[in-house]
Amino acid sequence: MSHFIAAIDQGTTSTRCIIFDKDLKAIASAQEEFTQHFPNSGWVEHDPSDLVNTVKSTFAQAIKEAGLMPSDIASIGITNQRETLVLWDRITGEPLYNAIVWQDRRTADFCQSLKDQGLEAMITEKTGLRADPYFSGTKLHWLLKNVDGAKERAANGELYTGTVDTWLIWKLTGGKHHVTDASNASRTMLYNIHEGQWDDEILTTFEIPKSLLPKVKDSSADFGHCAESELGAAIHIGGVAGDQHAAMVGQACFEPGMMKSTYGTGCFAMVNTGDKAVTSKNNLLTTIAYQLDGKTVYALEGSIFIAGAAVQWLRDGIGVIEEASETEAMAKAADPKEDVYLVPAFVGLGAPYWNPNVRGAMFGITRNTGPNEFSRAALESVAYQTLDLIDAMRADSGELQDTELVLRVDGGMTASNWTMQFLADMLDCEVDRPTVLETTALGVAYLAGYQSGLYPEPAQFAKEWALDRSFKSLIDEQLRAKKYDGWKRAVESTISYG
Ligand SMILES: Nc1ncnc2c1ncn2[C@@H]1O[C@H](COP(=O)(O)OP(=O)(O)O)[C@@H](O)[C@H]1O
Ligand SMILES: O=P(O)(O)OC[C@H](O)CO
To answer: Where does the record place the Carbohydrate kinase FGGY N-terminal domain (predicted)?
Structure first.
């Protein structure tokens, strides 16, 4: 039997493939960026074939780097950017339209109409989500309404839809398996997270035929075999989870109260609430963390749309840096007397504000403000936004109020020591960075390897989590309160500007 697992991480801006050995050590990896399409203000799309092609090419590159053959892979795990949705012809496999990406705001008006009709409470009660364009359901409603013939063809049973995992599995298995896992389903706004099934009332409200939707499975399950023509061998797919959920697993946050925050394009903080689906009173989401051995584990989630993307904006938008890593030295060099705040509401604000229409702003600019202060403000905005979430989580979750808070962090941005220290300063808690920063890939590799019997029980896996560095607050309460107060005022002003 072969002893290698391939983790495919299909993210918002790039696709990665990482090969893990039997000891869950990464032995090879490949990564490719793909084109982002912005056809209108606030619209974000991906070409669905780019998603499939980058999966195939990064898989081939990673296998080559590892000196393996495709047939040496025991199982594949797929983790993905969540909520992004594809609609395709179930016979030809051709998409009817580009994938509509989670960041896309085109359904803001439809969401407002759901609120105006008083439907948001029902949606939140069943799905744990809010009437926000972020989630897949309103994107599907838009496609059925706006793509020529889509509604009729959907009613005739000619079409399939799904989040990115479902699209990739459909293509990789040669159109044989139309499936997803419970964590991805829980992000669609169409899935009843308490009953564990697609919700008829919501489907009727959104005019979505159930025949479009995939079968929902555990996160560690049999998702079918790839067609030989796709990856070079009939490899089994044994693990699937939304990227933030895979990171929960990779960070071994298996106990209630354990919390992680992932800093990539956006930032997503999740706290495990065990078998209880806690309803947030502070504008957080209730979601399925993962589903293992038939048991659903829930989480509270705070979603921030722009984290590392603020650094990308410094690079690609205003050109003050060439590499993300330059921001560290620039933040250190920034003038401490310059109180500059960036509210990076480039695509609206997520939790806990949930305002899709507001746009970004900067405050406190003087003639002395330059690239260093811009960079510091971008990095600081990530910590302030996290504090907004953690405060909401503390208020929502009994476990968090009673325990000393520890936040496990991962994602590309955690490479920045300055940002992690500022995060600890603002949160006033321990911020733990593990040795493995590719926790998302690790988590889904674990799910796939657990399914095929290669990897141990969760409790044993959790013992292998290893700390790289722990950050603790170095500032006093007065300074923390002053800085956070400035942030709160900056956000209020941004929102009131509209
Ligand atoms: N040293 C760094 N300092 C600050 N930001 C960084 C650094 N390295 C990477 N980033 C940011 O992290 C993000 C990439 O993280 P990653 O986890 O790969 O994101 P994703 O999975 O969303 O594509 C980018 O937005 C980049 O700007
Ligand atoms: O692709 P990432 O890592 O930015 O993650 C995107 C999230 O899953 C969106 O909810």
So the answer is: 5-250
Residue nearest to atom 26 of ligand 1 (CA): 308
- The architecture of the domain spanning 252-434+466-498 is 2-Layer Sandwich (3.30)
Checking if the pLDDT of 347 tops 90, the result is: no
Q: How do residues 19-72 score in pLDDT, each as one tens digit?
A: 999 999 999 999 999 999 999 988 999 999 999 999 999 999 999 999 999 999
Distance from Cα 412 to the centre of ligand 2, integer Å: 12
Q: Which CATH number fits domain 4-243: 3.30.420.40, 3.30.70.260, 3.40.1360.10, 2.60.120.260?
A: 3.30.420.40
Binding site membership for sn-glycerol 3-phosphate: which residues?
12, 82-83, 134, 243
**CB-based contact 271:257 (threshold 8 Å):** yes
Q: Where in the chain is the domain with CATH 3.30.420.40?
A: 4-243, 252-434+466-498
Closest ligand 2 atom number to CA of residue 187: 10
Nearest to 136 by CA among 98, 204, 85: 85
Pocket mutation for ligand 2, best pick of 36, 55, 180, 243 (most atoms within 8 Å of C-beta): 243
Ligand 2 centroid, distance to 378 Cα (angstroms): 19
Residue 309 Cα to ligand 1 middle (Å) = 8
Give the annotated binding-site residues: 12-14, 16, 82-83, 134, 243-244, 265, 308, 312, 412
List residues bridging with 470 in a β-sheet.
432
Hunting for tokens 């038939």 — which residue is that? 294
Q: Which ligand is nearest to the CA of 270?
A: 2
Query: Which residue lies with its CA nearest to atom 20 of ligand 1?
Result: 264
CA–CA–CA angle 200, 202, 208 (5° rounding): 80
Whole-number Å distance, alpha carbon 305 to ligand 2 midpoint, is 9
| 227 pLDDT more than 90 | yes
Per-residue model confidence as pLDDT tens digits over 76-100: 999 999 999 999 999 999 999 999 9
Model confidence over 179-207: pLDDT tens digits? 999 999 999 999 999 999 999 999 999 99
Assess whether pLDDT exceeds 70 at residue 401. no
Question: Quick one: which atom of ligand 1 is closest to the CA of 9?
Answer: 21
Q: How far is the CA of 177 from the centre of ligand 1 (A)?
A: 33
Check whether 402 has a pLDDT greater than 70: no
